[in-house]
Amino acid sequence: MAAGGAVRGGVVPVLAAACLWGTVGPAQLSAEAGVDPVALGACRMLLGGAVLCAVAVRPAGLRTLWRRGARAWVLLSVAVTAVFQAAFLPAVDRTGAAVATAVAFGSVPAVAGLCARLVQGDRLGGPWWAGTGFAVAGIGLLLLPGSSGRTDLVGVLLAAVAGASFGVYVVAGKRLAAAGADAGAAAPVSVLGAGLLVAPWIAVAPAGLGSVRALVLIGWLALATTAVGYLLFTRGAQRISAATTGTLSLAEPLVAALLGVLLLGERLGGWAALGTALLLGGLVVVSVPVRSRARVAAGAA
């Protein structure tokens, strides 16, 4: 009973966080705030990171981030978090929520696995190769001329850059944990630091940021999808396995795709629909077998 309660206490928060994150692209497009996507991302990180640091970071945890062996990974985490925001929101603006989210998160396992191989010597198993093949094929289909009325080359490439940066962030997070850094402090500091890094763009493109629509959008992205999403995710991930966490995270691109198609009226051509399906299928291939192996191991124990 206690085990079931622990699983529910982990599954529900992680799933809720993934669903919140899946609203980022649709919210950006539906708000029609007319703001620069990079400036929007900077505002999101500054406000969301400040709230997260105030709620989740303690002085003792902050000190662990500056240990020898950790500080370089913290700086890398800040840099790639900034790249993610500077690339992902413009990708959504150019190519739509469904495609941008599928490309971004379909790229993550491939890059994370490759980085883990180079940095940690991790073995690249069959699921990684299959998932990477799906991702490459899916992105290739999206780049075909006439694949979709909304898809364009720059938007797809920006989404891939966002996914690559998140893949590097995943490995940096593992290295921080191995160096004894406080995981509860690392992510909030990365978000706030990235916001400070991108903040000058607010002065470059401030138009529309003070409008009611923009303020509501910034509030949702910063408070709901960043602060609340992170707190839910970290709370839930502590109670369930990494395999289950990864599988539940698949809800993020699925929610974005569904909202994009059903609420925003995004229409994918045949090749674009197949490419998006391949990207989502690659995420399933990478995640579900790991979960199955975890169940087998648990049963053997």
Whole-angstrom Rg: 19 Å
| Beta-strand share of residues | under 5%
Q: Helical proportion?
A: over 70%
Low-confidence stretches: 289-301
Characterize the overall form: globular
- The whole-number mean of residue pLDDT values reads 83
Distance between the termini: 19 Å
Largest sheet: none
Spell out the helices and strands N to C: HHHHHHHHHHHHHH
Class from helix and strand fractions: mainly alpha
How large is the count of helical segments? 14
Number of β-strand runs: 0
Task: Describe the protein.
- There is one protein chain.
- Helices cover 81% and strands 0% of the residues.
- With 301 residues, it is mainly α.
- The longest helix has 31 residues.
Map the helices and strands.
Blueprint: H1 2-21, H2 24-31, H3 37-56, H4 59-64, H5 71-95, H6 97-120, H7 126-142, H8 153-178, H9 183-198, H10 200-204, H11 212-237, H12 242-248, H13 251-262, H14 270-300
Helix pairs in contact: 1-11, 1-13, 2-6, 2-11, 3-5, 3-9, 3-11, 5-6, 5-8, 5-9, 6-7, 6-8, 6-13, 6-14, 7-14, 12-14
Short description:
The protein is mostly helical. Helices cover 81% and strands 0% of the residues.
Characteristic key phrases:
single chain; 301 residues; mainly alpha; 14 helices; globular; disordered C terminus
